[in-house]
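Ops channel
N.P.: pipeline sanity check, posting one input/output pair.
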């Protein structure tokens, strides 16, 4: 299977435009869970909000042209960036979870929209444009909210489920990666340091032959 990289410009756009929205939506999901605790709130309801709130907000912003992503033709749950599909998935619980071992899973009681996110449009063999799908994978829980976020390319699919990532870029991990990594720093123009100006000491006209 060919290695698929993640364009640096895409990483920067996701970090600048999608990550803040994801973080805000996870804060809202965490608060909704807290308010409804003891009134039917569960890990399932949090998981539904953790996917559904960002999905709706991403779509709204894309349709309004407020982010450099377009809504995907298949509807909610996917965006398009210069021909590349970007999907978001909650794949783990905390920043301690190993992203290399965390993939989208289908719960026993997931609703229709939440279930749709876990079924890719390709089978065991990559076909069509979905071969280039890039996943905004994140860890979250109702106690801490968003715990980590990554951009991943799909490495292997079995029975229409992701079982391996190929490339992984860490966007943020709580308490571990708080600032953008080298890929983002490379986009900042290097600081220009002016060359020092060398000034020659003026020669006195009345100096004697020995320079005194």
């Amino acid at each position: 299977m060919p290695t698929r990289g993640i364009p640096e410009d895409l990483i920067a756009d996701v970090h600048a435009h999608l990550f803040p929205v994801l973080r805000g939506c996870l804060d809202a999901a965490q608060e909704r869970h807290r308010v409804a605790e003891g009134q039917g709130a569960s890990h399932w309801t949090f998981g539904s909000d953790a996917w559904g709130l960002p999905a709706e907000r991403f779509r709204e912003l894309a349709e309004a042209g407020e982010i450099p992503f377009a809504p995907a033709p298949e509807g909610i749950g996917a965006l398009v960036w210069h021909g590349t599909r970007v999907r978001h998935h909650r794949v783990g619980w905390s920043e301690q979870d190993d992203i290399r071992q965390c993939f989208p899973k289908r719960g026993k009681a997931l609703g229709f929209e939440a279930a749709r996110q876990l079924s890719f449009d390709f089978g065991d063999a990559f076909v069509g444009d979905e071969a280039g799908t890039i996943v905004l994978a994140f860890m979250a829980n109702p106690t801490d909210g968003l715990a980590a976020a990554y951009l991943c390319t799909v490495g292997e699919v079995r029975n229409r489920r992701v079982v391996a990532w190929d490339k992984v870029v860490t966007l943020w991990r709580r308490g571990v990666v708080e600032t953008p990594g080298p890929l983002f720093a490379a986009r900042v123009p290097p600081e220009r340091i002016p060359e020092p100006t060398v000034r020659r000491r003026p020669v006195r006209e009345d100096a004697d032959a020995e320079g005194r």
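N.P.: looks fine end to end. The two ends are 80 Å apart (CA to CA).
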